[in-house]
Every structure is written in structure tokens, then in C-alpha cells.
Amino acid sequence: MSHVVRRQPDGRLILLLGALAACGPISIDMYLPSLPSLAQTFGVSPGAAQATLTSFMLGFSVGMLLYGPISDTYGRRPVLLGGIVTYTLATIACMLALSIDALVLFRFVQALGAGAAAVLARTIARDAHEPADAARVLSMLSIVSSIGPLLAPLLGGQLLLLGGWRVVFGVLMLFGVLCALAAFFRVPETWPREKRANAALLRSFTAYGRLLSDPVVLGHLLCGGMGVASMFAYITATPFVYIEYFHVPTQYYGLLFGLNIVGIMLGNFINARLVGRLGSLKLISFAATVSCGASLFVALVSLTGWGGLGAIVAGLFFVVGVVGLLTANCTTDLMHRYPHNAGAAAAVFGAVQLGLGALASLAVGFWGGVGPEGMGATIGIAGLLCYAGRFLVVRLHGRPVPLRGI
To answer: What's the fold here for domain 11-190+213-396?
Structure first.
């Protein structure tokens, strides 16, 4: 009979899972410096170019909803491999796209595949480690997965100078091939057969309804999801705000972007050191409070023009810096609350995050123009809603799971 081998945090496994979890963020961040050039290539508006980001986030969200229950039923490893292969093939299609509409479609399919790496890397980390270690392991995994997004916009800016946005997709294709090989040879199956819902895939999907009926889950989704929505408003807007509005050179855009990745890494490092002592609930409360305050500051600066670029960069450092801390603790708490549907819990959390991120991206695009006003307004609203989610989590955290057998 197969069984899960619980282990102490394994540095090699964390490194590999971190690389897999970075598949989606790298596919976004390496592409960001290309957005203004892409709009010029196809002769479309900034909003149309930003639609390629929105479609990726929507595909990412849908993919995670699919992969969570499927992996609970059939195991983690085959689902992970299938998703990475889908990602790689779709990346080739993106590289060859001849119109903005085709690129929007192919980015959606690319994200469907990337969703497998995102949700299953974290689920495998949870499967393979004791509950007391899981939050710390997920924070360590987030630190590792932040290295790629830190370097991605810098590399993307240089690739844009060397050969244009199609070269960026060529590099992402090679990254997909490496991820597929690494997963095939090094990632173990961590969900044993006796724990799988054999021939009960539909029952696995019904777990979403049970999860969403739990007010504690809804609080986590709102708290963590709105933090991510703020981050994606920033991701969508800053290629135009920094490069076209504030005239930051394309090759230096990645330096400003990298400051916020450093903030995420710092937040995750703090979380890894303190979560065992303070617990997830206190850190969620702290991070949501910081996120709300910093978001309102960015909104004020963006709408009034006070402080210019420096003030915006400073405020965004704190808005983005606590996102990893929020997501690591919210995800861990949900998976421990629903241990027999851990894949579905991780998937619904990730999907809602990306869905809210896509809505924030759309809101920025609908605002129009290249100024910071749309970004600031969207981030300010998201910060207030994040704090509302924090209120639900803190107030209702002690409630029992509403249904048995979950």
C-alpha cells in the first residue's frame, strides 16, 4: 500500500518546487517590458496589449480550478506533467502569433498549463511535510520562486533590445522544457492511492461548493485575493506608467520592478522565521493591515501627483512586499482546515486570487491612458477590501468546519 513519506524540509525539493511555482510569474514578468513594443507592433491601444496579461491571469485561474480536484482524484505527478507540456506547446504558439487576438487566445492556453505547476508545487510541498513545517516550507518555497520573477523583467528588457517580444517567448519555451524534464525525473508522487477519491472526480469538484459555504474560507479568499489584486494592478499598469509616463528606460524598468520582488522575498523570509512562534493568524492580520495602509497611500499619491515616481515606488514596495506573506499563511490555513481536499483548497484559493487579479487588470485597462490614476484607484479599493477580509478571518477563525467528511 502506498503512503506519504513525511519529511523534514528538503532543500533540494523546495528548490525544484520553487522553480515550478515560478512558471506562471516568470511568464508574466519577463513579458512586461514588451507591452509597449507589442502595442506598436500590432498597432493596438495599451488596453488591447494589456488584454494579453488579463487572458493569462484568467487562464491561470481556470487551470488551477481544474487541477486541484483532478490531482486529488488521480494524483499529483501525472497532472503536473500534463500541465507543463501544455504550457510549453502553447508558448510556441505565442511565439508564432500573427495577431493580437491570436496572442490573447494562446496566452490563455499557456496559462492553463502554467496553473498546474503553480497549484501542485504548493500542494506537493504540503503533502510531503508535517503540518507544523508546512507554513515555513511554503514561505521558503515562495522565496525560491521569487528569484525568477526578480530577474525576469531585467532579462525581458534585454531580450527586447536583442530581438523583440518573440524572443521572450522563445526563452519561456526553453524554460518550459527544462521544467518538464525536472518534474519528470525529480518530482515524486506525494498523494497515495488510498487517499484518492477513486472514480469520484465529480465529488472532488463539489468540494468547491462546500469550501465556498465556509465564511472562514471566504475571509481568506477576500484577504489574500485582494492583496494579489493590488499586485496585478501594479503589474499591468507599471510598464506604461514607468516607461511612457515617467520615461524610465525600458532596460531599467526591471530594476524598479525588482525592488518589489525583493520586498516579497523579505516578507517571506520574515514569515518563515516568525510563523512558528506567532502563528498564521497574527501574521495574516499584520500583513493585511500593512497592505491596506500602503494601498491607500499609493492611491493618494497616484491621484494627486504628490511625491511623483519616488513616492509611488515606495508605496508599492509595501503593497507588494506583504503579498507572499498573506498567500503563504492563507493557503496553509485553508489546506490544514480541509486536509482531505487540500488540492481543491489550494486551487480555489489560487483561482480566486488570479480571478481578482484579472479583474484588477481589466479595471486598470478600462481607465485608459498611461498615467498612474487607474492603478492608484484600483489598488486603493483592493486594499480596503483586503482589510475587510482580515476582519472576517480574525473574527471567525475559531469556527468549526461546517460539513463533515471534508
So the answer is: Growth Hormone; Chain: A; (1.20.1250)
**Containing H/E element for 104?**
helix 100-128
Mapped onto helix, strand or coil, the DSSP state of residue 375 is helix
Spatial CA neighbour of 2 closest among 265, 280, 191, 235: 191
Task: Enumerate the β-bridge partners of residue 129.
Answer: 7
Number of neighbours of residue 44 by Cβ within 10 angstroms: 17
> For the segment 120-137, what is each residue's pLDDT rounded down to a tens digit?
887 787 776 665 566 666
According to DSSP, the residues that pair with 7 across neighbouring strands are 129
- Which residue is listed with cell 522565496? 143
Mention every residue, 6+ apart, whose C-beta is less than 8 A from residue 229. 353, 356, 357, 359, 360, 378, 382, 385
Q: Residue by residue, what is the 3-state secondary structure of 338-362? A: CHHHHHHHHHHHHHHHHHHHHHHHH
Cα 199 → chain centroid: 30
How far is the C-alpha of 315 from the C-alpha of 223, rounded, in Å? 19
- At residue 86's C-alpha, the angle toward residues 81 and 91, to 5°, is 130
Looking at per-residue confidence, does 86 or 214 come out higher?
A: 86
Three-class DSSP category at 377: helix
Q: Which amino acid, 184?
A: F
C-alpha distances in angstroms, 307 versus 34, 311, 313, 338? Answer: 27, 5, 10, 46
Write the burial class of residue 209 (CB in 10 Å: 0-12 exposed, 13-18 middle, 19+ buried).
exposed
- Counting Cα atoms < 13 Å in the Cβ hemisphere of 151 gives 7
Nearest-10 Cα torsion for 107, 181, 335, 223: -30
The C-alpha atoms of residue 335 and residue 337 are separated, in whole angstroms, by 5
- How confident is the model over 182-228, as pLDDT tens digits? 888 887 777 777 666 554 566 666 777 878 888 888 999 999 899 98
SS3 193: helix
Burial class, 98, CB count within 10 angstroms (exposed 0-12 / middle 13-18 / buried 19+)? exposed
The cell numbers describing 45, all together, are 491601444
Domain edges within the chain:
11-190+213-396
Rounded distance between C-alpha atoms, residue 320 and residue 372, angstroms: 16
List, as one string, the DSSP characters of 150-189. HHHHHHHHHHHHHH-HHHHHHHHHHHHHHHHHHHHHHPPP
What phi and psi, each to the nearest 5 degrees, are found at residue 135? -60, -40
Count CA within 13 A, CB hemisphere, residue 263: 22
